[in-house]
Design goal:
Largest sheet: 4 strands, mixed
CATH topology: Glutaredoxin
CATH superfamily: Glutaredoxin
Distance between the termini: 19 Å
Helix content: 25-40%
CATH architecture: 3-Layer(aba) Sandwich
CATH class: Alpha Beta
Number of helices: 2
Shape: globular
Bound molecules: FE2/S2 (inorganic) cluster
Radius of gyration: 12 Å
Strand order of the largest sheet: 2-1-3-4
Length: 85
């Protein structure tokens, strides 16, 4: 089992146009202390955009925890929270 923090970035249309494309570049912008700590993957529509019950796009999960209206900063903060828990 990998001890990396799993980051799944929704790359469906709604999320992509709302900024998921920036988040997909997260690995290139990670601060030194977090480099090599994450496993990042893009995904097709995760289904959260369908009914408006989950906040707004873009959606990212970090170790299964949903972040709505995700930004590079909010995703990085969540990664840090988990990495140093
Ligand atoms: S496009 Fe991202 S949850 Fe649907």
């Amino acid at each position: 089992m990998s001890d990396k923090i799993k980051v799944v970035v929704c790359s469906g249309t709604a999320c992509f146009v709302m900024g998921a494309s920036d988040i997909l570049l997260l690995e290139e912008n990670l601060p030194e202390d977090l480099q090599g700590r994450i496993e990042l993957e893009g995904a097709n529509c995760l289904g959260y955009c369908k009914d408006g019950a989950n906040g707004k796009a873009p959606y990212v999960t970090v170790n299964g925890e949903l972040i709505s209206g995700a930004t590079v900063l909010s995703v990085m903060n969540k990664i840090r929270e988990i990495a140093y828990a």
